[in-house]
Fold:
Amino acid sequence: MADKSPRLIVFSSLYPSRVRPNAGVFIRERMSKVARHCDLVVISPVPWFPLQSLIQGFKPEYRPQPDGYEEQDGTAVYFPRFLSIPGIGRSWDGFFMALCSLVICFRIKKDFAFNLIDAHFAYPDGYAATLLGKWFKVPVTITLRGTEMPLSKIPNRRQRLLTALNDAARVFSVSDSLKRHVVNLGADAEKIRVVGNGIDTAKFFPIDKKQARQFWQIPTDAQVLISVGGLVERKGFHRVIEILPGLIENYPRLLYLIVGGASPEGNIRSRLEQQVETLNLGQHVRFLGALPAEQLHGPLSAADIFVLATANEGWANVFLEAMACGLPVISTDVGGNREVVANERLGTIVPFGDADALFLALDNALQRQRQWDRQAIVNYAADNSWDKRVDILLAEFKKLVES
Structure:
C-alpha cells in the first residue's frame, strides 16, 4: 500500500536566509515544528530583475540575493530567482514565481515524492503554488497572514488572490478577522480554517528584570516601553515617538526601546532617528537593531510595557512573544490584534490613528505597572503554544493527501 504520510514543499518568498536572517521567522517557527512529524523541503523564490544593481547603488538593502541553497537545521531550503519588475510588473510576480520554481520542483520530485504544497500568503506565493499544484497534480494549502488586506485594494492582485484561494484545497487564516475579510471578497468560507500563530516558550520566557536591565545598561528605576518589528512605516514606531514628549512629562525616566532592522518592505531608521532628534528625545529612545529570536527575551524582560501602533497585522506573533516575557500589550484595532490581546488583563487595544487614545492607554498601563498580573499574562502566552496549532495542521495535511 502506498505511503500516504504528508511530504511537503513549503512555498514562501518570505523565509529566513543568511542575507535576511529575520525575514519570515514566524513561518520557519511553524514549519520547524511541523518538520518533527513529516518530511518537508522549502522553496523560497527571490525577486530579481536585470537592472536592480542600479537601485542597490543608492539602496544597498534592496533585494539582497542569498545563495541558491541553504541547509537550515537539517531542512533543505532552495532560493530560486524569479523575474520581478518593480511597479506595474509586480502583477506578474505569481506567474514568474511558479515558472522559476519548476526546475527545482522536478529535481526535488526525483528523490522526494512530495504530495502537498503548503504556501504562505495568498499572493503572489499562493497563486504561484496553485499553478505548481496543477502542473504536478498535488493539492495546495495557503495560509493567509495579513498582506491580503492591502493587496485586495489593487484590482488585478485581488483577482489573482481570489483565484489562488479558489484553487487551493485548504486555506488557513491566522485570524478570524482575516478570514472574514477574504470571505467578503468572495472566497469560500467552508474552505477556510482559522489557525493562529503559536509561541515557542523555549525561546520566549521571562528572566529577572534587574539582571536583564543590567545587561542592557538600563537604569533600574526607568519606565521602559518596547516595540519589536521591521523598521517600516506600517509598524508605527513614529506614532509612538510622537507621543513620547507628553509621556515624559509624567514619567521623566521613561525609555523607549526599538528592536528591529531593515525588512523586505524597507527601512525607515534614518527617518525615525531624525524624528527623535527633532523632538529632542535622544536620552529617551534607544535603537537596539535587529536581534535573533533567541535573544529577544532579554530586552523584553527588561521592559515594562510592549507597544506597537501598527497599521496592519494578520496575527501578530510578537504580541505572544512579549506576553511570554510577562509584558502587557498596547496596540491598535487592526487585523487580528483584538483576537490576540483578547481581554483587558492582557493589555489595551486602541483605535488606529488616534494619538490621544494611544497616549492614554500607555499612561494608564504605566500607572498600573505593579498591578498587572504578569504570571497570568505568561500563562496565556503558554496556552497558545505551537504544539496545539501543529496538531491541527498535521490532521489537515493528512486528510488532504489521503483523499
